[in-house]
Amino acid sequence: MTGVSVIGAGLAGCEAAWRLANSGIPVRLFEMKPKKYTPAHSYAGFSELVCSNSLKAERIASAAGLLKEEMRRLGSVSMSAAEASRVPAGGALAVNRTEFSDFITEKIRSHPLIEVIEEEVTDIPDGYVIIATGPLTSDALSKSISRLVGAEYLYFHDAAAPIVTAESLDRSLVFGASRYGRGGEDYLNCPMDKEEYLSFYNALIEAETAPLHDFDTSDGYTVYEGCMPIEALAKRGVDCMRFGPMKPVGLTDPRTGRRPYAVVQLRLENLSGTMYNLVGFQTNLKFGEQKRVFSMIPGLKDAEFMRYGVMHRNTYLDSPKLLDRYFCLKAEPRIYFAGQMTGVEGYTESAASGIYAALSLSRRLKGLPEITLPPETMLGALSEYVENGSPSGFQPMGANMGILPELPEKIRGKQEKYEALANRALEKLKEAIGGEYYEDDC
User: Fold this and answer.
1) Residue (of 239, 259, 240) closest to 249 by Cα position
2) What is the pLDDT of residues 95-137, one digit of tens each?
3) Per residue, what are the HEC states of the chain?
4) What is the set of domains in the chain, with CATH numbers?
5) Which among 80, 93, 337, 415 could disulfide-bond with 55, CB atoms 3.0 to 4.6 Å apart, if both were Cys?
6) pTM for this structure?
7) Torsion angle in degrees (nearest 10) through CA of 374, 376, 382, 388
């Protein structure tokens, strides 16, 4: 049986190696620890959780809970580790990070079909490969990937604006229009008068920001100058936003017949029209502060945030131009990617992408048809987003209910709707994999 090289023993790499090996395919798993560490890592074990011990909500009627249940049904080793190392955390699944890592490390090292090679990979190996090196991929391997895909398709910093659901907007306060009438109603506009703008401005410049780590940037925000945080722009002067992303020129508020004092524009984030991003509002505010301050924008008082803005060091691909929905490199099909490099955001999302990439590759190596996870499933929706991206430009995305297709019937009540979406997802997953749980095809 043809073997596969997996680069990186983080969550995505370990899931990929586990799935391949359990399908009877030999794996060479490359991990540079403990000989070399990234600036974010310190523990020698595999699948080290760096930022938090929480894997988010447990309830299936939530995006995070649904994705974890799908992973369980696909044979996830990280979900087994989470059960073995869990600690009390209310409605969240939290773990003892050391025990979590140790559990996965032991499972991987003891598997007879997995050979662990402790060395840094600087060039992409020959043969079939899954690259799962995470957001802090080493400089040498990043250069090798750049040569492979083209430097213009590999990004090294993630500056993303918040995303809100379309149905949570107050349409009585926003209006659809493009500046000077060019392009029809491609944007939704949230107009502000002077008093509203100044209240928003003062709240924004006083809001609490998240700390920047030394592996995010060594020089403040200068590396982000082309996409400066909205709060940093505001601090340069009271009118800076009005001459930047909040400029009102070329727009007329139909309620007043006049140009607004300032305006926040919302742009479609997905092709189905269920989500919008706040144009030019990349931010480093803490998530709670984003909810508090951005809800002051007219029309966003009750907005449901599907993703908060982020700014951090993140190596990722322009995946819609490079990868298919199975995380396979279109130009060189022997190579797959997994983890945050593909544009999924978060621990469970990264792990799930490793499962799907390995599932697809293992079936391909055995001459079996690939399993296409439906977009009604959370993992299927994430893989579809990676393949098709966003009309407004590709940015990493985490699991959220907004990326799932709408239900055919209207359901009143957020929780009831989420329960219906989750039930549909698990039924669709069952149909795709031929039962409640995926059976190894070895």
Assistant:
1) 259
2) 888 899 999 999 999 999 999 999 999 999 999 999 999 877 8
3) CCCEEEECCCHHHHHHHHHHHHCCCCEEEECCCCCCCCCCCCCCCCCCCCCCCEEEECCCCCHHHHHHHHHHHCCCHHHHHHHHHEECCCCEEEECHHHHHHHHHHHHHHCCCEEEECCCCCCCCCCEEEECCCCCCCHHHHHHHHHHHCHHHEEEEEEECCEEEHHHCCCCCCEECCHHHCCCCCEEEEEECHHHHHHHHHHHHHCCECCCCCCCCCCCCHHHHHHCCHHHHHCCCCCCHHHCCCCCCCCCECCCCECCCEEEEEEECCCCCCEEEECCCCCCECHHHHHHHHCCCCCCCCCCEEECCEEEEEEEECHHHHECCCCEECCCCCEEECCHHHCECCHHHHHHHHHHHHHHHHHHHCCCCCCCCCCCCHHHHHHHHHHHCCCCCCCCECCCHHHCCCCCCCCCCHHHHHHHHHHHHHHHHHHHHCCCCCCCCC
4) 4-159+312-433 (3.50.50.60), 163-308 (2.40.30)
5) 93
6) 0.76
7) 70
Residue with tokens 């924004």: 204
Please state the length of the chain: 442
